[in-house]
Structures are given as structure tokens and as C-alpha cells.
Amino acid sequence: MVTSIRRDVLITLRKNKGWLQKDVVEKLKNDYNIIISESYYGMIEQGVRTPSLKVAHAISELFGVITTKIFLNTNTTKCCF
User: Fold this and answer.
1) 37-54 pLDDT, tens per residue?
2) What is the reported pTM?
3) Which domain holds residue 28?
4) Inter-CA distances, 25 with 3, 16, 58, Å
5) Sorting pLDDT into bands at 50, 70 and 90, what band is 22?
6) Does 21 fall in a domain?
7) How many domains does the chain have?
8) Are 71 and 56 in contact (CB under 8 A)?
């Protein structure tokens, strides 16, 4: 069973701006010419879907944070020694 990791940082960033998921989707469309559904964006927030690099970068720019702050989970990296 694969466990998804909620992207709480992304959810917090959105809520701090007072935006709904549909607001983010609309801003991605208008500002970055990226068209995704509200449902798909919700799955990104819930960690069910991983966006393409282009979409992840646009989302990061929209919120003014570096991409890795939202989309890189450093706890999953394990040492191979």
C-alpha cells in the first residue's frame, strides 16, 4: 500500500492568501497558461498526485516560495550504506 503525504505547506500557503483551490487553478491558467482541473489541484495538495516540473514550478512561483519547500520530502531519502 502506498501512503500519500499531504502537502500541508501548500495548503497553508493557499489558505494564508485566502484562496480556494479554484482560485489557484484560475491563477495558474491566467498567469502561467497552465490548465489543470480543480480536482487535480486538490489531489496535488493531498499528495495523491505529483505535478509535472512545469506545474510544480508555477505553483511555487505563485506562492513565492522555492519548489523544494513544497514538493520535496527530505524524510524519504535513505542512506545506502
Assistant:
1) 999 999 999 999 999 999
2) 0.82
3) 8-74
4) 25, 16, 11
5) very high
6) yes
7) 1
8) yes
